[in-house]
Amino acid sequence: MPTPRPTYDLVIAANRLPVDKVVGDDGEVEWRRSPGGLVTAMESVMRSQPGAWVGWAGDAGEAPEPFDEDGIHLHPVPLSAEEVRDYYEGFSNDTLWPIYHDVIVPATFHREWWSSYQAVNQRFAEAVAEVAAEGATVWVQDYQLQLVPTLLRKLRPDVRIGWFNHIPFPPVELFAQLPWRAQLLEGLLGADFLGFQRQADARNFVRACRQLLGAQTKRDRVTVEGSRRQVRAAAIPISVDFQGLEELAKRPDVMARAREIRASLGDPEVLMLGVDRLDYTKGIRHRLKAYEELLSERRIGPPEVTLVQVATPSRERVDAYRLLRGEIEQTVGRINGELGKIGAPAVHYLHHSYPREEMAALFQAADVMLVTPLRDGMNLVAKEYVTCRHDLGGALVLSEFTGAWHELHQAFACNPHDIEGLKQTILRAINTPAKDKQRIMKALRRRVSDHDVQRWAARYLAALAAAPELPQPEPRNPPTPHAQETPLMPAPNESRSASSGSRS
Ligand code: GDG
């Protein structure tokens, strides 16, 4: 008789497994832990209870057999090359991503992409159902897996299901563009608890349920299954591993590297830094425009002031990303051609990914950190920068359109669409006296150290555990199930009757 597969009390489902495949010179395959914050947060949680992680291993085709790595059971989900194209690059990154980020670029809709998204979500739900123990807690991550909660509930009504959205949840006016809007909401409503980065995101979700599904809502709750179950949607903002990252930034070799970076740039008076995935949401174009104008107006200039822009390669097979790369590289070329000097370029542009140590050194080397997204769920770079500034040096310019801004109010706030305002903010970040900047940095660091990623995970799991027990008794006159889609924006009195008091 085959031995039954082990099952786990805590299961994470995310598009990617928390490991990267490394093939050695001898062809030997090794898995290396990817350094993201989510992994660190889960390590702290999984220390007390053994857990499993369900996700794609990163290569199209057959998936490797499940394996254990550093105390976590990894359960790979296979994706074919067509699914990588349709579910991942297509529906996730070219349909949902633009809609969820204010349609900065137009979204693309293809029915085949949607079919692929459904099929992959079903596969994830089945994989989770296989590894989850009786009554387990399942934590689904992000916009790629929005159908998993309901699909999983059908397979395993005994498990407790949470979902966390790492990106914004759009206002109903934008979300309503999606031809599959009702199915996506219904997919999520299979969860017991839905976590968002900002309160506004949670409110957008509740409002979408009310207006697009005709669901009953009250404050942060949506009633489903004819009043039998309530789903709570609330903000629990993600963070960074403050202690781990600060320790790294305090290492003598990392601090020496920070000095070396400055020296290799000619020890400028002001070193400005941008670190982003090369994504149109990050506001890199707006940042470069403000910087270029400051240079052409001779308010700042190399070699005294210089900018290092790290643009990590991202989604290179999606058209909008290819176009963006061309545009950014052309702009950097123009700025350097027109405004740089021999031995002192105005922009040091790096289209690479770096080890964590190098990132920590760059953060320490930078006098002004430019975080200027047009829309960003959180933006961990902002939190990582202040974590690394144990010397209380540096200044953070932070867009109001990031989730981070809602926690880091003391930063030099900017609206990246307002180029004139952005220029003024950059100059203020440069010219504010060091003593004031230290005071600001101290406050920012306090916020991040008090609200680190371990606390985020603990808060999330506590909220999930506290979600209302199910099922509640059947009401005598159950209202019509929400599956029927109601038109967008019902007349005001209709909308009032559909909701019970919740306003956003
Ligand atoms: C999504 C949401 C939300 C970047 N380049 C390198 C590198 N990075 C690291 C950064 C940071 C992470 O990648 C990027 O995180 P962000 O939060 O800035 O942005 P997204 O990738 O868009 O993440 C976002 C996040 O999910 C978490 O919920 O905050 O809003 O869009 O940690 O440091 N790390 C290394 N080398 C690089 O070259 N080692």
Automatic annotation (TrEMBL):
Annotated region (Disordered), positions in chain: 467-504
Q: Extract the signal peptide range.
A: none
Database matches in CDD domains: GT20_TPS
Q: Where is the composition biased (Pro residues)?
A: 470-481
Q: Which Gene3D superfamilies match?
A: Glycogen Phosphorylase B (3.40.50.2000)
Listed InterPro entries: Glyco_trans_20 (IPR001830)
The record's listing under Pfam families reads: Glyco_transf_20
- Bias category Low complexity: which stretches? 495-504
> Which family does the similarity line name?
Belongs to the glycosyltransferase 20 family.
According to UniProt, the name of this protein is: Trehalose-6-phosphate synthase
- Supply the source organism for this entry: Terrabacter tumescens
Gene name for this UniProt entry: otsA
